[in-house]
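User: Can you predict the 3D structure for this chain?
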Amino acid sequence: MKLLGRLFGIFAIIGMLLGMIPLLGWLNWLNIPFAILGLVFSILGKSKGGIIICIVAIFLGLLRLIIGGGII
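Assistant: Here is the predicted structure, written as structure tokens:
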């Protein structure tokens, strides 16, 4: 579970970074549930690194959606 949660967190960060590119903000609608799933796996596996990575991906993805109006 530790490894799975951390891998989901890393993929969520990569997806969040791609979502920061103009006109690709919609990717965060797909990325946030993925990061939440990674957060669940990280909590079950008790992986501090995975928890932090997933929380950062969720927070920054939500921030990007708020700034872009949820679409852009």
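The helical segments are 2-19, 27-45, 48-67. DSSP finds three helices and no strands in the chain.
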